[in-house]
Amino acid sequence: MHLELHHLDVFSLEETPERLFDLSLQRDMLRAETIYSLVSKAIVRNRPRATGHPGFSSSIISGLAQGSGEYFTRLGVSTLPRYLYMVLDTGSDVVWVQGSPYSSGCNKRRKCLYQVSYSDSSVTFGDFSTETLTFRITKVGRVVLDCGHDNEGLFVGAAGLLGLGRGRLSVPTQARHRFNRKSSYYLVDRSVSSKSSSMIFGDAPIPQTTVFTPLLTNPKLDTFYYVELLEISIGGTRVRGITPSLFKMDPASNGGVIIDSGTSVTRLTRPAYIAMRDAFRIRASNLKRVPDFSLFDTCFDLSGKTSVKVPTIVLHFRGADVSLPATNYLKQRNLLLCFGGYHEWFVHYWKHSATKFPGGF
Question: Which domain of life is it from (predicted)?
Fold first, then answer.
């Protein structure tokens, strides 16, 4: 069974593309800082870990039109469901919905208060409850969720948040016996309205173009999904100076690479980014460089050009090589074409093209 996924930005019709991009970068910076903080704190304190049924699925839509880099899914809440758009988040565990007026069940079981703060300063406060969630036509009962009565911040266009992390309160963990502990999401280019994204729980046909890489676990932080990034190629050549050691998680749980559905911009450690940027500049020597623009430290002048050739980029994961479309690592603004950013910035919206590299929960 499948559900369609919709990006949040499809709801925002008044913002310009430049404004949407700027807002996305601001949210990304705050979110990345919070993820780094959580991982750092987890190194000195362990967190407890959570110790066949037919599958089900959910549709996904882009949040681009609402000024958000996140994706939405539409779910029914309560036994007689009200259908709500909820933000997908693989970087958190808690499921919450606005308690009133969306879900009558939320207002009847006031037993335990909760409060969750997010990296962009958004916050939700309310009561714990249990509810039935409807994924298209499949009902999953007794899901522990939070009924928010005070939701503030950048929950643009959303009536709640679907926590898809690996912690004990996330949907994948709570419903793992319903779908044989298997789930995945497929995200297509959010600017292509003719193609749909989906989130699948349980067994489902796998596209022939799919490639796989193992998911790693941080023993001191159970929420995040880690993957093993080994090397990066520019223009068909492995970048000198980028080695697996730059991305490896050490025995103390430092380092590692996190896959996060709520972050739009990929970040690398400074040595990896500098090596990659310099290799890109050499390969793009046929283009005229211009001064830096905003976050971007490698920009080119497109005056008088109808088309340009740019170096290809391939991310080499364990067992999976992912080639990125140029639109995922180059940002065009008027007559400027810019690559990357500075320090730990790299790749604009690369994860949204990962139809050949589906994430797994």
Answer: Eukaryota
